[in-house]
Task: inverse folding
């Protein structure tokens, strides 16, 4: 029989201690690399050579961030990426909400067939070349095209579909008896009751739009509307090339490519980390309810 130990008013078994140890090791395995990224982004090239596995820099050095912001290209990346988030997230939310609400309503003609066809798109798609030809034929090889191409996400729609299906049908029937239309029911009854799944989809879609680079690389030409990810990629590549070519420069003056990479990670990650705490209270509930149909 497992030995029990009293801790306050709780009784801990041996398995509880084992789980605590495992979770502690797992937490450190996640936290220490993150701390290393922060430390390397604020350290100098000389100190990094002395201690590659750095957790706390001896002296704060902002050279990596100065190199990152020196050309001003990063502001172009922020501008484009913020446009993706500002217009792409509401578009995805509207399309997923309206589609999910229509498909979960009983009596909607052909809803099972339409739902099946939408599910097929998660497995099969037309490919990159047909997509590019369609977008080019519509003269949408610009920022608007990138936003529209990523507007509908089947996974988000399924999450909302399962959540909407769990709501009592009697609420919608009562609203219809009072003369409410479908759009009124959606915006006045369904959506106010669906804040957990809406917060979850907003978080998912925001991260997705913030990390957008693939469609931008295909559809956009020129550097005036490059998103943040592509801009950071070009800056890191340029710094790597400069570091390889600066053989005659002293260690103090040499371009620190690893520091610039870590600074780029921090610049990309920090805005999303600031948004996450505001949606965290809805996140777990939205994922659980939206992923499992009642």
Result:
């Amino acid at each position: 029989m497992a030995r029990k130990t009293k801790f306050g008013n709780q009784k801990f078994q041996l398995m509880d201690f084992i789980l605590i140890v495992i979770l502690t090791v797992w937490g450190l395995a996640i936290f220490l690399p993150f701390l290393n990224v922060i430390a390397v982004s604020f350290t100098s090239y000389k100190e990094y050579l002395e201690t590659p596995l750095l957790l706390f820099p001896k002296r704060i050095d902002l050279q990596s961030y100065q190199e990152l912001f020196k050309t001003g290209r990063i502001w172009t990346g922020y501008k484009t990426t913020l446009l993706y988030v500002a217009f792409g997230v509401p578009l995805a939310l509207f399309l997923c909400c309206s589609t999910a609400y229509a498909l979960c309503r009983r009596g909607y003609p052909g809803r099972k067939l339409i739902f099946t066809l939408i599910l097929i798109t998660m497995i099969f798609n037309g490919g990159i070349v047909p997509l590019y030809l369609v977008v080019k034929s519509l003269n949408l090889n610009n920022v608007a095209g990138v936003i529209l191409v990523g507007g509908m996400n089947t996974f988000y729609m399924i999450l909302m579909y399962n959540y909407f299906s769990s709501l009592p049908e009697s609420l919608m029937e009562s609203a219809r008896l009072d003369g409410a239309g479908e759009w009124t029911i959606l915006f006045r009854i369904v959506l106010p009751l669906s804040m957990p799944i809406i917060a979850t989809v907003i978080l998912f879609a925001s991260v997705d739009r913030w990390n957008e680079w693939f469609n931008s690389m295909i559809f956009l030409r020129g550097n005036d509307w490059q998103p943040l990810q592509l801009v950071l990629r070009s800056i890191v590549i340029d710094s790597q090339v400069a570091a390889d070519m600066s053989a005659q420069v002293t260690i103090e003056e040499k371009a620190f490519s690893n520091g610039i990479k870590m600074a780029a990670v921090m610049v990309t990650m920090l805005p999303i980390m600031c948004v996450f705490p505001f949606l965290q209270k809805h996140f777990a509930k939205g994922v659980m309810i939206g992923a499992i149909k009642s």
Remarks:
- The mean pLDDT is 79.
- The first strand starts at residue 4 and ends at 7.
